[in-house]
TrEMBL record:
SUPFAM superfamilies: FAD/NAD(P)-binding domain (SSF51905)
Catalytic activity: indole-3-pyruvate + NADPH + O2 + H(+) = (indol-3-yl)acetate + CO2 + NADP(+) + H2O
Organism: Linum tenue
Protein's UniProt keywords contain NADP: yes
One Gene Ontology term of the molecular function aspect: indole-3-pyruvate monooxygenase activity
The protein's name in its UniProt record: indole-3-pyruvate monooxygenase
This protein's UniProt keywords: Auxin biosynthesis, FAD, Flavoprotein, NADP, Oxidoreductase
Pathway named in the protein's UniProt entry: Plant hormone metabolism; auxin biosynthesis
Cofactor: FAD
Amino acid sequence: METVHRTTVVIIGAGPAGLATSVCLSKLAIANTILEKENVTCSLWKHRAYDRLRLHLAKQYCNLPFAPPHAASTPTFMSKDHFTAYVESYVSRFQIEPRFDCLVTRAAHGMGKWRVETARGEVYEAEFLVVAAGENGVPFVPEVDGMEGFGGVTLHSSGYRNGEEFKGKDVLVVGCGNSGMEIGLDLCNHGARASIVVRGPFHVVTRGMVHLGMQMLKYVKMKYVDSIVASMASFYYRDLPKYGIHRPALQGPFTHKSTTGKTPVIDVGTVDRIRSGQIQVVPGIERVLKGTNEVEFADGTTRRFHAILFATGYRSSANSWLEDFSYIFNGEGMPKNEMPNHWKGEHGIYCAGYSMMGINGISKDAAAISEDIISQIMKN
């Protein structure tokens, strides 16, 4: 007979969202088990993040539940190493013990229970299931005509650490979000000749503008904060249209983020390199010329590159193993319910870390989920 591990809540994923949810549940004396497919906590940051990555929000907005405030000596914008050390201290402080190397292959609801199966042949049963595997489940690379015949190096940002290996080379960065813009800067700093594909409008702000906006949102409606921050950005970055970068016309940066999930680009030096001509902005890719290193762009121009780096983000992978995903997710593996009720599904399933609101959003999800679960337990 198979061995079944029984608990009250199974949490899938030992990133910040899974860890935060576990702590909130444990504080309410609710038994829970975390299953993590990798061999470490916070694997996205430890295994798939480039070296110069920093949190874009100030440290006061990046506290996990029940943890003490960040030390005064901690940088305002934490580096990858600072943040992973913070997570490790969180795990140690609250004695969290995830079960590592537990790749979930199937999760389904039946007979009032959630049954979770792993690649190791283990089975877990629980009244409640929390999906905390994250919106950044698997790397996403868009289809590009002729890419299979490209003669150079192709790489997703999840495999990029720094630009040292690209010194003296022409590198095309596909994706102009925060990762793409920052990787473009890193490549430039390492002596590469970087070009960044820009296909549509996006907001560009500084960390200081975001920090000011976050402070103001405590007291002022979002539309007024947007007006102020957008005015500052449009003045400071008023010359960007001539480089091919335009901002959305109808929504300010905070409203755009809350309605579309698209984070404004937080400039950490890339714009100055674009202005100086050290980084080129190019339009969308039309195709890769067969059997060459030549890329043709939407404006009809062609250029030769040694490498193409895709900073095109990730996709949720939950729907591949969650049989009853429609209880909480849409077809893209993202919450089907709108905020602020995105975290709760049907039949005892929840999701944490899918709000696109960073660590602050994770903390809110974890608290809401644990409070809802205890209320369900008390009813029964």
